Amino acid sequence: MTDPTIARHTQLGLTHDQLTRALYGMMLSRAVDDRLWLLSRQGKAHFVITAAGHEAAQFGCAWAINAGHDYVVPYYRDMALSLALGQSALDLLSHALGKQGDPASGGRQMYGHFSSRRLRIVSGSSSVGSHPIHAVGLALAFRAKGETDIAAITFFGEGATAEGAWHEAINVAGIHQLPVVFVCENNQYAISVHQSKEVPVPDVATKAAGYGMPGVIVDGNDIFAVYAAAREAMQRARTGGGPTLLECKTYRLRPHSNADNDMKYRTAEEVESWRQRDPIRRLSAYLLEHGLSTEADITTLQTHAQAEVDQATQLADQAPFPSPSTLFDHLYGE
């Protein structure tokens, strides 16, 4: 049992510096979010899916990942995760604007296909729910090559769990007890379809029992709860204990994408009630409550995050588009 007299970050072995860097990263992600929304309205970013509201789920999991060693297969809403693992605001803005410096594809891929060979971030598929198969394939490769102390982790929304490919992935992982962690960022809506019409059970994690693995449910807006669960799941996978299905209950604070009108299927009151649980606000309050930061410290972090995004936007906007001569690079086996 945990000791309520000891601060949660201390119990989890997290330092003041880690908390401050996480808060800055979450603020940076939100600032990139805000900028992408504006750029989409200007016609510069043609398609945008943001991470607003999901930051604690993604940063909490990132703390449990050995970046550059473990393999990560994200989904299209994992912008904050990419930042937490080591990508930059410039990387993401270059990606969104389709510029030559985009590390994911050199400006050739639709937004949301985050990837980095250096960080072992593997690009997901456009077909919803199909990329967990890639994570399972990686985990099976670890087994075939005799690799140990390594895991794959993949992310998806609750809507993906209604797709056949998702079931195939989690089924194979369960049969072979592979070193892979499945993370459901459950924000209650598969675009405009509420979870109650998409998933026949209130908790996605209950599906885990049918596939021979633990199912864990956490408050996805509580970075400490997410980290504790993700750390246990990743350690279990790395040490031969098999897969885990982790469900992070969260909420997206913006429409599904810049092409979506969320007021057609949810109320302003519902969105506002979740804004009161904003993960950035919650972590800021924790730092203040425990005397780890002052209001001035937090304001300074926000100012620096905004300045970083301003500079990254300018650089990405001025950067060249990929040369037409590269149009057929990496196609047809070349």
Any overview of this molecule?
- With 334 residues, the chain is of the alpha/beta class.
- The chain has a single domain, classed as Thiamin diphosphate (ThDP)-binding fold, Pyr/PP domains (Rossmann fold), CATH 3.40.50.
- Helices cover 42% and strands 9% of the residues.
- The protein is built from eleven helices and seven strands.
- The protein has helices at residues 8-11, 16-41, 55-63, 79-85, 89-97, 132-145, 164-176, 223-238, 268-275, 279-289, 295-318; strands at 71-73, 152-156, 180-186, 189-190, 193-194, 215-219, 244-249.
- The strands form two sheets. It has a five-stranded parallel sheet with strand order 1-2-3-7-6, sandwiched between helices.
- Strand 6, helix 8 and strand 7 (244-249) form a beta-alpha-beta unit.
- Helix 2 packs antiparallel against helix 10 and helix 3 (55-63) packs parallel to helix 8 (223-238).
- The longest helix has 26 residues, at 16-41.
- The chain is globular.
- It starts with 7 loop residues before the first helix and ends in a 16-residue tail after the last helix.
Strand order of the largest sheet: 1-2-3-7-6
Would you list the SSEs in sequence order as H and E?
HHHEHHHEHEEEEHEHHH
Q: Total strand count, please?
A: 7
CATH C-level category: Alpha Beta
- Find the CATH superfamily: Thiamin diphosphate (ThDP)-binding fold, Pyr/PP domains
pLDDT averaged over residues? 95
Supply Rg.
19 Å
Q: Return residue spans where pLDDT drops below 50 for at least 5 consecutive residues.
A: none
- Classify the helix fraction into a percent range: 40-55%
**Would you tell me the structural class of the helices and strands?**
alpha/beta
What's the number of helices? 11
Main sheet characteristics: 5 strands, parallel
> Which word captures the global form?
globular
CATH topology annotation: Rossmann fold
> Into how many domains do the coordinates divide?
1
Calculate the terminal CA-CA distance, rounded to whole Å.
Answer: 56 Å
CATH architecture descriptor: 3-Layer(aba) Sandwich
Q: Tell me the strand percentage band.
A: 5-15%
